[in-house]
Specification:
Layout (H helix, E strand, L loop, with lengths): L1 H7 L2 H4 L1 H16 L4 H37 L1 H12 L18
Helix pairs in contact: 4-5
Amino acid sequence: MIENLKNKIPKFLQNKYLIIIILFLIWIAFVDNNNLIKQYKFKQNIKSLEEKKQFYINEIYNDSIELSDIINDSNKREKFAREKFLMKKENEDIYILRKKENE
């Protein structure tokens, strides 16, 4: 009876080393805490963070250029103060125009 069942199983599945290797691969791919799926997600997260890092490095570079321009040029300093802080000269009036949304 056991011999009859053993003959029905294909030869490659009777190899105990092959079975252990298959079980090991399944364990590594799906069961382990550091499985392949989590590793893939970690790599995607790292890639996203590297892109954000590069974006912020570029922003810091652009802002430092703008800062040096504002510090060194009085006309740009005045323009910056007028645009960002709504500063004005004594004899001026400022009108702020805003677009209405959803109309």
